[in-house]
């Protein structure tokens, strides 16, 4: 494994195990898995899902949808509030694939109806607690009116309800994830039941990695669409979604300087490689050393500071002598989605290069 600059290293075996675990969970719960590909954004990793029978996917942008459509995916949901300024991309995609978009207000539904040239499916986005986009689950009449507006169109197909419980990322432990997720699912399930008589084919899609990783029951949910689980990260291990050994990526960083008196390593690896997401326990990432077929944690090493290209690792007394300039060490990312976006390509442990959208 030749490393000369910050490189995102993928443990393919761990990644495949994460995928298989979520596929098996969905099957055991009678759910359809429509995974979110915003984390890995790689056509090669996408093929690992296809090998296990996954043929519908979720993405976070129309550009990403175009990338995966070019790789043969033909049923794609763009899980981001529909941007009418990208109507040309919507129309081009809808010519060739089954495209689904998200709306949460009547204005965008009207604009879509007036400007789409090909039939597209529409989810109404429900805000289940993340306080981002979406209609609040108690606003039944607003949801019903929007569903009726969509259904009255000859170009838009009302598909159902979509919700991402992003607030679970702030949980402190598995039990809190379960409590937050169960409340979100209960709200979404109740809303679905109130609309079923009018829309018997309505689909309820729910998905975030913490919820989908720890829950064993999903009530009346039909589909799940988690994304981060493909790699996991330090944040997910901290809140109880996974174990550190489930993290499938690390950033390999050259040691470029050593400050003996301060017990610090200076690495080539900074905010433009990891992002600036921070953990109270692990700093800007968990420091690891590479071993055969993987990596292991370096106890007593903390990535305490990052600037644009620099990273500073603080070592406990006595550890500095174990490193030299030119060594390569790893940093498990706090948030793997952002780290993958920063570095935009992967190298497996056996040296294979893999692409990123």
UniProtKB/TrEMBL annotation:
Report the source organism: Fulvivirga lutea
Please list the GO terms describing molecular function.
D-serine ammonia-lyase activity
Q: What is this protein called?
A: Alanine racemase
Q: Which UniProt keywords apply?
A: Lyase
Describe the family membership recorded for this protein in Swiss-Prot or TrEMBL.
Belongs to the DSD1 family.
Q: Which residues form the D-serine dehydratase-like domain?
A: 248-350
Mind telling me which InterPro entries this protein's record contains? Ala_racemase_N, D-amino_acid_metab_enzyme, D-ser_dehydrat-like_dom, D-ser_dehydrat-like_sf, PLP-binding_barrel
> What domain of life is recorded for the organism?
Bacteria
Q: Does the keyword Hydrolase apply?
A: no
**What is a biological process (GO) this protein takes part in?**
D-serine catabolic process
């Amino acid at each position: 494994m030749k490393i000369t600059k910050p490189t995102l290293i993928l443990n393919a075996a761990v990644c495949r195990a994460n995928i298989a675990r979520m596929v098996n969970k969905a099957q055991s719960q009678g759910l359809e898995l429509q995974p979110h590909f915003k984390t890995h954004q790689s056509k090669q990793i996408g093929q690992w899902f296809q090998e296990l029978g996954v043929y519908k996917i979720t993405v976070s942008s129309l550009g990403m949808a175009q990338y995966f459509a070019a790789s043969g995916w033909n049923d794609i949901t763009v899980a981001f509030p529909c941007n009418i300024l990208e109507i040309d991309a919507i129309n081009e995609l809808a010519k060739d694939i089954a495209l689904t978009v998200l709306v949460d207000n009547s204005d965008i539904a009207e604009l879509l109806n007036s400007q789409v040239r090909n039939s597209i499916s529409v989810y109404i986005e429900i805000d289940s607690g993340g306080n981002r986009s979406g209609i609040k689950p108690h606003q039944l009449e607003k949801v019903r009116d929007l569903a009726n507006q969509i259904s009255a169109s000859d170009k838009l197909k009302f598909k159902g309800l979509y919700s991402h419980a992003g607030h679970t990322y702030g949980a402190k432990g598995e039990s809190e994830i379960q409590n937050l997720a169960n409340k979100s699912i209960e709200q979404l399930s109740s809303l679905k039941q109130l609309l079923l008589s009018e829309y018997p084919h309505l689909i309820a899609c729910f998905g975030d990695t913490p919820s989908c990783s720890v829950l064993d029951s999903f009530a009346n949910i039909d589909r799940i669409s988690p994304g981060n689980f493909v790699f996991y990260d330090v944040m997910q291990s901290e809140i109880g979604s996974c174990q550190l050994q489930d993290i499938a990526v690390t950033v390999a960083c050259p040691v470029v300087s050593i400050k003996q008196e301060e017990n610090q390593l200076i690495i080539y690896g900074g905010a433009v490689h990891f992002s600036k997401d921070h953990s109270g326990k692990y700093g800007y990432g968990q420091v690891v050393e590479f071993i055969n077929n993987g990596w292991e944690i370096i106890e007593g090493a903390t990535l305490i500071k990052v600037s644009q290209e620099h990273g500073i690792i603080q070592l406990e007394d006595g550890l500095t002598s174990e490193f030299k300039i030119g060594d390569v060490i790893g940093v498990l990312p706090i948030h793997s989605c952002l780290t993958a976006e920063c570095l935009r390509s992967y190298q497996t442990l056996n040296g294979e290069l893999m692409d990123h959208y």
